Automatic annotation (TrEMBL):
Pfam families given in the database record: RRF
HAMAP family: RRF (MF_00040)
GO terms classed as biological process: cytoplasmic translational termination
Stored NCBIfam families: frr
One Gene Ontology cellular component: cytosol
Protein family: Belongs to the RRF family.
Name by which UniProt lists this protein: Ribosome-recycling factor
Length: 187
């Protein structure tokens, strides 16, 4: 009946890698005490009647390790960009210099570093849960095919494929978490 069952492992892999891409974005938004243009990615500015990413209203630069500058193209938006940064929860106090907004990145104290490593751990756990949910979807497809006549050998083969993919991507999440936590704790 279902001798021609083909589990779409490419789709499962793509979905699992999407969870990892989301994790990378969340990690990029975590401050590590070093300036990074990516830390402003989640900040949206009320520009021209809609929410717009900062990099679409000005040029974001990192001229030195503890400074981010934003050269806002439209003078009328400088106040809105400054307000968006203040309200973003990044804990950075913008300083204005004409159309250039300077963001000095303060040193992180030990307590704040520990808090950030816990937040990174939570982000990683969310990614692991997402990967496991995708694994469960794959296993459910295999069980359904088994009910439709998939042989036991084929079932075992596909279950092993899904489990290997899951293990590989969860190991990737763990490695990225370890790297990010080391980066946060580095003084």
């Amino acid at each position: 009946m279902s001798d021609d069952f083909m589990l779409d492992t490419d789709d499962l892999k793509r979905r699992m890698e999407g969870a990892i891409a989301s994790l990378r974005t969340e990690f990029a938004s975590l401050r590590t005490g070093r300036a990074s243009a990516s830390m402003l990615e989640p900040v949206m500015v009320d520009a021209y009647g809609q929410k717009t990413p900062i990099n679409q209203v000005g040029t974001v630069n990192v001229p030195e390790p503890r400074m981010v500058t934003i050269n806002v193209w439209d003078k009328g938006l400088v106040g809105k960009v400054e307000k968006a940064i203040r309200e973003s929860g990044l804990g950075i106090n913008p300083q204005l210099n004409g159309t250039i907004i300077m963001l000095p990145i303060p040193e992180l104290n030990e307590e704040r570093r520990r808090e950030l490593t816990k937040v990174a751990g939570q982000y990683a756990e969310h990614a692991r849960v997402a990967i496991r949910n995708i694994r469960r979807d794959g296993m459910d497809q295999i069980k359904k095919a088994k009910a439709d006549g998939l042989s036991e050998d084929d079932q075992k083969f596909w279950e092993n494929e899904v489990q290997e993919l899951t293990d590989k991507l969860i190991a990737s999440v763990d490695a990225q978490l370890e790297t990010k936590q080391a980066e946060i704790m580095q003084v």
